[in-house]
Amino acid sequence: MSETPNPAAIEMRGVSIGAMRDVSFIVVEDANWTVASGEFWVIAGQQHSGKSDFLMLTAGLMTPVEGSCRIFGRDTRTFGEVELAERLRVGLVFEGGQLFNHLTLRENVALPLQYHRNLSPDTAAAEVQPLLELMELAPLADITPANVSGNWLQRAALARALILKPELLLLDNPLGRLDARHQQWWLRFLDRLWRGHDWLGSRPLTLVATTDDLRPWQNAQLKFGLLHDKKFSPRGSWDNMESSNDPVVKELQAVPIGETM
Amino acid sequence: MRGNLAKAFELTNTQVFRRAALPKSYTDLWGRKLFLLLLTIQGLGAFALITLGVMLKKNRLARNVMGPRIRQEITRSGVALLPMFLFIAAALGFLVIGQTVSALARVGATDYLGSTMVIVVVRELGPLLTAMLVLARVGTAHVIELGTARALGEVEALEALGIDPVHYLIVPRVWGTMVGIFSLTVYSIIGALASGYLWAFLQDVPLTPGEYFKQLAEALSWLDFALLALKTLGFGFFIAIVTCYHGLAQPLRLEEVSRVAVRAVSQSVIACILLDALFILLYLVT
Question: Which three-class secondary structure state does DSSP give residue A231?
Answer without folding.
Answer: strand
